[in-house]
Amino acid sequence: MGVKRFLCLSFLCPFLAYAKPLRMVTFAIPLMVENSQRGLFVDLTRDIAQRGKIDLEIEIVPTGKALLHFTNGKFEGLFPALDVYTPKNAVKTLPFYEKIDFVFYRKNKPLKTFKDLEGKKVGLTFRYPYVAQLTANKKIHFEYAADDVTNMKKLSKGSIDAFVVEERSGLQALEQSHVEGVTYDSTQPLSRQDVYYAFRDDEEGRKMAKAFSEAIASMKSDGSLKKRLITHQPKPLE
Questions:
Q1: What's the pLDDT at 19?
Q2: For 19-97+196-230, which CATH superfamily applies?
Q3: 53 by DSSP, 3-state: which?
Q4: Which of 51, 96, 104, 166 matches a 20 to 30 Å C-alpha distance to 229?
């Protein structure tokens, strides 16, 4: 009887391990990660987990701690993951989003390219991932603010010449700040970065990355990914 029980438990072990809640860590991002139950990336992650029949737990911590906890193995997965800060040994999924940064500027004073920003005061938001082509440019004078709304107000007042921000976040900040005289060129992005999920490089992590990638591919194919993104689109500039 004891041997049969041992064999039964041994046989079930892989399934019991797979059935454990998947613990993912993230950090607060306006519009994208409002809390553990709300935000574009949170909703999308839950859609993907539901499609893959994965029991999911999401925890939000400060940005630096999220990366540290993931690197130290406290969590199995991290999102949103970008190449600029994700550990190189992490297992990546297919991209589920593209972070497209634009230059917001005062009307009649257009600034659209890296070259345009040289010699100017450019607002950035603390803890946001920007491409090295921007942050490594010594000819650009950067001023950091705690959030996007503050940067948008500084731009409107003339404290900075430009504000580099992801399009959706920028439009939401413009709406929430109630400022006037600020615009951007939606046809000329400054930079693009793939956004994906990162998992630990072990057997379970590789399984999860495969399951998430398959769900992302399926959602792209049937249009549900695009539909989800549209539901969180801020009001465009007129």
A1: 61
A2: Periplasmic binding protein-like II (3.40.190.10)
A3: coil
A4: 104
